[in-house]
Amino acid sequence: MSDRIFTQNHVWLLPQNEYVFTLGITEFAQQQLGDIVFVDLPELGVSTQAGEACLVVESVKSASDVICPVVGEIIEVNNQLADEPELINESPYDKGWIIKIKVAENHVIQSKMTSDEYNSQISSSSE
User: What is the CATH number of domain 5-125?
Assistant: First the structure.
């Protein structure tokens, strides 16, 4: 997963180009949530704020805010999740992507980590 950026809030970002990122939740996050039954997909054009919830994922255990790590605008949503939210459980890094965000020109990704740094964080927190 070296092509992705990870955050402390268990979100991944995959750069599509300099200003567009695909966002999803990590394998660890979906495991902690359990079976995902609903994704409250945001509307296109909605502004995102770094450090604030941009959508909600509901599982059989709980509902969880997904914290956006960038300021930007939602330009695409994975509409397939409306009928198949379990795609996040089955394939969190591919078919289970959630939204695409066009970031501001001077964007800063909040709490960003490499794959190795993220894996180190989750393994130390589960000990």
Answer: 2.40.50.100
